[in-house]
Specification:
Layout (H helix, E strand, L loop, with lengths): L1 H24 L1 E17 L7 E14 L2 E15 L9 E16 L10 H5 L3 E17 L19 E18 L5 E15 L19 E19 L5
Antiparallel strand pairs: 1-2, 1-8, 2-3, 3-4, 4-5, 5-6, 6-7, 7-8
Length: 241
């Protein structure tokens, strides 16, 4: 009699537990925010770029667990050139801030990983594209060629402060971590970002192309590690997470 009652009470509890766990495995949070940082390297009008730093904060809306729209804010330092080794004695240090709108699509949106542990582990791979603006503040720059150069006294044209169009291209990986209820709650993010700036503000040099090679947009690549926290209302998804 007692055993029969235990069986009757155990089965509903087990069903509720399994149902809740399955619900968590098939649903996701709508929003996330995070932060991170790393290094960057510049590719501008100067002969050789140098290593700088990048920090960021991000807020994202999750269209699905693997497709996101987000607002990204960055602050960092970009530098390059050397007054002694650069062919034209150019050298700069720029502090920058940027705001961009980004879209990212992960591998998990398109592959069926239910029966493949390999694909399941790679579901967080993504590609992203964005657009926005970058605010450049050149804090240190060689404006006149030094006396030991072959053209002493030449003044480099350019601005110390500017705002340029900014297009970031992202390739990265999200590693998902579940909470105690089985929801994907935390993300460790590794990202490589190519930043195209359209204008001559990043390095502060705007030399005429008939005098200097100056044909490509200023670029800096950023390599960062970050953290995300997912929150908000829950939405259903067609795959098991």
């Amino acid at each position: 009699m007692i055993l029969s009652r235990l069986k009757k009470s155990f089965l509903p509890v087990t069903f509720i537990f399994v149902a809740n766990f399955t619900f968590a495995q098939s649903n996701y949070f709508k929003y996330s925010y995070g932060f991170g940082g790393g290094i960057n390297k510049s590719y501008t009008d100067v002969y050789e770029g140098s290593i700088g730093y990048t920090t960021y904060g991000v807020f994202e809306y999750n269209l699905t667990p693997y497709v996101t729209l987000g607002l990204d804010g960055q602050y960092g330092m970009v530098q390059g050139g050397d007054i002694h080794t650069d062919p034209y004695n150019r050298q700069f240090i720029t502090k920058y801030t940027s705001v961009t709108f980004n879209a990212k699509v992960m591998m998990g949106e398109y592959v069926y990983y239910d029966k493949s542990e390999f694909l399941y582990n790679l579901r967080g791979l993504y590609f992203g594209l964005g657009v926005g603006f970058i605010n450049n503040k050149v804090t240190d720059v060689v404006r006149q060629r030094p006396s030991f150069s072959n053209d002493p006294g030449y003044t480099f044209p350019g601005k110390d402060k500017s705002v340029n169009l900014h297009v970031p291209i992202n390739v990265g990986f999200n590693y998902f971590i579940t909470d105690g209820y089985g929801y994907q709650r935390y993300i460790i993010n590794i990202n490589a970002q190519a930043n195209y700036t359209f204008g001559e503000g990043l390095d502060g040099y705007d030399d005429p192309s008939n005098k200097f090679k100056n044909y490509s947009p200023d670029i800096f690549n950023a390599y960062t590690i970050g953290f995300r926290y997912m929150f908000g209302t829950i939405k259903a998804y067609r795959k098991t997470l």
